[in-house]
From TrEMBL:
Record-given protein name: Helix-turn-helix domain-containing protein
Domain HTH hxlR-type as annotated: residue spans: 14-112
Record flagged with keyword tRNA processing: no
Record's keyword terms, sorted: DNA-binding, Transcription, Transcription regulation
Coiled-coil boundaries: none
PROSITE patterns: HTH_HXLR
InterPro entries cross-referenced by the UniProt entry: HTH_HxlR (IPR002577), WH-like_DNA-bd_sf (IPR036388), WH_DNA-bd_sf (IPR036390)
Pfam families noted in UniProt: HxlR
Entries under SUPFAM superfamilies matching the protein: Winged helix' DNA-binding domain
C-alpha cells in the first residue's frame, strides 16, 4: 500500500499563481508533483488539490496525457479503477520544476514587491 498524499502538501497561503514560471495550466505542476512517487487515483489527487474542481482536474489530466507527461491506466474488473502516473517524459520534468521552485523561493520578496507595485496587479 502506498503512502497517502499529504492534504497540506501545497500551502494555501503561498499562492503558486505568483510564480511567473508555469508548467502547463494552473494545476499541471501540482499534479506532476502529486504523481512524483507513483500512480494515483483521481480521488487521491483531489486531497491535496482541494481547490480544484473535478472538471478542471479532468481537463489538466487530459492535457498532461495529450502532451505525453501522464499515462492514464484503466484497470478492468469489479470496481473498475483508473490511475494516473508520470511517463518517463513526465519524470524528466521534475528536475526543472525543482529548479524553478528554488528560483521562485529565492526571489519571493522581489516577486511580491513587483506584483504589489504593478498597476496591473
Amino acid at each position: 500500500m502506498r503512502t497517502p498524499l499529504d492534504p497540506d502538501m501545497f500551502d494555501p497561503v503561498c499562492p503558486s499563481g505568483l510564480s511567473p514560471i508555469r508548467i502547463g495550466d494552473k494545476w499541471a505542476g501540482m499534479i506532476v508533483r502529486c504523481l512524483e512517487h507513483g500512480p494515483r487515483r483521481f480521488s487521491e489527487l483531489r486531497v491535496p488539490l482541494r481547490g480544484v474542481t473535478a472538471k478542471a482536474l479532468t481537463k489538466s489530466l487530459r492535457t498532461l496525457e495529450r502532451d505525453g507527461l501522464v499515462h492514464r491506466a484503466s484497470h478492468p474488473g469489479p470496481g473498475r479503477r483508473v490511475e494516473y502516473a508520470l511517463t518517463p517524459l513526465g519524470h524528466s520534468l521534475l528536475a526543472p520544476m525543482a529548479a524553478a521552485c528554488a528560483w521562485a523561493q529565492e526571489h519571493w520578496e522581489e516577486l511580491l514587491d513587483a506584483r504589489e507595485a504593478s498597476p496591473h496587479g
